[in-house]
Write a structure and sequence with these properties.
- The complex is a heterodimer of chains A (92) and B (212).
- Helix content of chain A is 58%, strand content 0%.
- Chain A contains four helices and no strands.
- Chain B is built from three helices and 23 strands.
- Chain B has an eight-stranded mixed beta sheet with strand order 6-9-12-15-18-20-22-23, covered by helices on one side. A six-stranded parallel beta sheet of chain B has the order 7-10-13-16-19-21, with no helix packed on it. Chain B has a five-stranded mixed beta sheet with strand order 3-4-2-1-5.
- Chains A and B meet through helix 3 of A and strand 23 of B.
């Protein structure tokens, strides 16, 4: 109960939910049910270029961030972990 | 009427079939696709593209690429199909809809599809395998590289250069040169040149390097 209220009060709850939403979104887009934080999305061609652009729009809406031109590097979108790192940096 | 076979059997093949039937330009013998069986719009899938050379010996002198995008939007597929057709000794015609407006001094390669409602202004150069979908507008004196794909409603300003295998998304408005292997997302407005091998999207435009 204490942990739950800590999570809620520190805004972590929303963050965990949005990361789950991101994974669900990617599983649906890539049709890859075994997708993990380190699954390669671009080099393994799980996402095509249009899906990549749709993913950028999804991230901006879901995490309420604006991804600036200098962050539009494919390495920032290669897997869930790299997207999380970029979003954490943008939220700071 | 000369006979023709279409290589590929997806949505684009249906556009090719419709163009041939509307223009009554060729007699369609069938389609070739290694991965599918059955028929498309009443025309049979005869087998894989390895049949090209044997078909060329049976009085079929023409073939046309019926695919412009492969799995994961692979724009190189048309190039590979056209190479196979050329190797077989068959000819690749241009299929220009009579419902398109094509003005004077057009220079064309082969394997070009121009769909109804497209407007191609004076002095345009089109490379091999270019696909121009409905309502595309290409301004005068533009130079379009081989295997470029224009989705419906794309608009190009005059005197632009579009590099090989570029993909211009639906309704994109292009006012600057586009490098080879670029992909321009639907609805984008391109006011500055996009370098080779990039994805560009939005208005104002954002540009991202491609990996694959």
């Amino acid at each position: 109960m204490k942990l739950k209220s800590y999570v809620r009060n520190n805004g972590i709850e929303g963050e965990i939910m949005t990361m789950d939403n991101l994974k669900s979104y990617l599983m649906k887009e890539t049709k890859e049910p075994a997708l993990t934080d380190s699954t390669e999305l671009i080099e393994s061609k799980l996402l095509d270029s249009l899906q990549l652009i749709q993913l950028i729009a999804f991230l901006e809406k879901e995490f309420a961030v604006s991804i600036p031109p200098q962050e539009l590097d494919p390495n920032n979108f290669k897997n869930v972990q790299s997207m999380k790192t970029m979003i954490d940096k943008l939220k700071r | 009427m000369e006979k023709i076979v279409i290589v590929g059997s997806g949505d684009h093949a249906e556009c090719v079939i419709a163009n041939i039937l509307e223009e009554k330009s060729f007699e369609i013998v069938g389609l070739l696709d290694t991965h599918k069986k059955g028929s498309v719009m009443g025309f049979p899938i005869l087998g894989g593209d390895q049949l090209l050379s044997s078909l060329s010996k049976t009085g079929i002198h023409y073939a046309f690429p019926g695919a412009i995008l492969g799995s994961k939007a692979d724009t190189g597929i048309c190039c590979r199909i056209m190479e196979k057709i050329k190797t077989s000794g068959m000819k690749i015609p241009n299929l220009i809809s009579s419902k398109a407006v094509v003005r004077l001094n057009l220079k064309m390669g082969c394997g070009i599809l121009v769909q109804p409602g497209a407007v191609i202004d004076v002095g345009v150069t089109l490379g091999d395998g270019v696909a121009i979908n409905p309502q595309v507008l290409i301004g005068h004196h533009c130079s379009i590289g081989n295997y470029v794909v224009f989705a419906g409603g794309a608009v190009l300003n005059a005197r632009l250069k579009i590099g090989e295998r570029a993909f211009i998304g639906m309704g994109a408005k292009i006012f600057a040169d586009i490098g080879a292997d670029c992909k321009i997302a639907p609805g984008s407005v391109v006011m500055e040149a996009v370098p080779e091998g990039h994805i560009a999207f939005g208005n104002p435009l954002r540009v991202m390097r491609r990996i694959n």
